[in-house]
Design brief:
The protein is mostly helical. The chain contains 3 helices and 2 strands, in the order ββααα.
Length: about 90
């Protein structure tokens, strides 16, 4: 786990002050995340939830783009956590 990670410039979400352990609801496997990782993880999960709603196509494109950027950041920042939680 990295000590201090920089969030991407495009990220406009909330930066948490503390990290925490997150559990994959499907596998039951858990991993500790830094505040930055937790912020991006919650952003990705929130985007997935929004995409399940019925939105017009232009809004979906923007959400998919941001979610993809979040996933890419997460893969590079902590590939092990990515494999546990999102792969």
């Amino acid at each position: 786990m990295n000590n201090k990670q920089k969030l991407p410039e495009w990220f406009q979400g909330v930066l948490y002050k503390h990290g925490e352990e997150v559990t994959n609801p499907f596998s039951g496997e858990s991993i500790e995340l830094t505040p930055e990782e937790l912020s991006i993880y919650d952003f990705i999960i929130g985007a997935q939830m929004i995409l399940e709603m019925k939105l017009n196509a232009s809004k979906r494109v923007d959400i998919i783009k941001d979610m993809s950027r979040g996933i890419s950041w997460f893969q590079h920042a902590n590939s092990k956590a990515y494999m546990v939680l999102l792969d």
